[in-house]
Automatic annotation (TrEMBL):
Name assigned to this protein: Protein ROT1
GO biological process: 'de novo' protein folding; budding cell apical bud growth
Location(s), subcellular: Endoplasmic reticulum membrane
Signal peptide range: 1-19
Compositional bias ranges of the Polar residues kind: 195-204
Length: 254
């Protein structure tokens, strides 16, 4: 009986080390997938020359502000089982606003004119990648932020519209590394477009912001706040390990 109680308590405490949180405050920062090579910001997309910069490895990155803005950087490579030498690769950039509904659903609404995609299909595009505008609203059924008990760092778990988990993302930068949140490349028929003089000034201002972002890229390494959730998670982890050890001894002695 004692053995069962100790095992149950230790299991519950281990589960508590991943203290889920689903608020805008918890989303704040830049999150990147395990490859740790894909990050949002000026190192991924240059809006002045409208260039997508291909990372060294595939991956995914999202950034969130506390006041409702997001940015996405994606580098996907899909294998072709029938033709191993014909993988399809896509580099995608989006940014815009996000909303968290009362039931925990997270909706990302991009600025339509700013999304970009670079699609490479070497066996069908004659060696020339296709560069185009991209606009895709994304809906996540739920999300959770907590301390990963294995890596000991903050992890963001997004659940897609059907409830299936997306690959986990890990905190890389806080504050987030992002491009300006306003429309970057307004079109002539866009509500955000300005006069010819205004567009020129806007372009010059944008160029300065991007340049500053590139200069600061390596000065904004993630700063993780050691708030109570992190401390409590560590305490739960150590206590659970002790109880698990006691339970094992009791089991062997029994």
């Amino acid at each position: 009986m004692l053995k069962s109680i100790l095992f149950l308590v230790s299991t519950l405490l281990v589960a508590k080390t991943y203290a889920d949180d689903s608020t805008a405050e918890s989303l704040y920062g830049t999150w990147s997938s395990k490859s740790n090579q894909v990050f949002t910001g000026p190192g991924f997309y240059d809006p002045v020359d409208e260039l997508l910069i291909e990372p060294s490895l595939p991956g995914l990155s999202y950034s969130f502000t506390e006041d409702g803005y997001f940015e996405e950087a994606t580098y996907q490579v899909s294998a072709n089982p029938k033709k191993p030498g014909c993988p399809v690769a896509a580099v995608i950039y989006q940014h815009g606003t996000y909303n968290i509904s009362s039931n925990g659903t997270l909706v990302l609404t991009p600025i339509k004119v700013d999304g970009r995609q670079l699609l490479s299909d070497p066996c069908n595009d004659d060696g020339t990648s296709v560069y185009s505008r991209y606009n895709q609203t994304e809906t996540f059924k739920s999300f959770a932020v907590g301390v990963d008990p294995y890596h000991g760092i903050y992890k963001l778990q997004l659940y897609q519209f059907d409830g299936s988990p997306l690959q986990p993302l890990y905190l890389a930068y806080r504050p987030p590394m992002m491009l300006p949140t306003e429309t970057l490349n307004p079109t002539d028929n866009s509500d955000d477009s300005a006069s010819e003089t205004g567009s020129s000034n806007s372009k010059r201002s944008l160029s300065e912001l991007v340049k500053r972002g590139l200069e600061n890229k390596h000065r904004t390494n993630a700063v993780k706040n050691n708030h109570q959730g992190f401390i409590f998670s560590n305490v739960f982890w150590y206590v659970s390990m002790v109880l698990l050890g006691v339970g094992s001894i009791a089991f062997l002695a029994y």
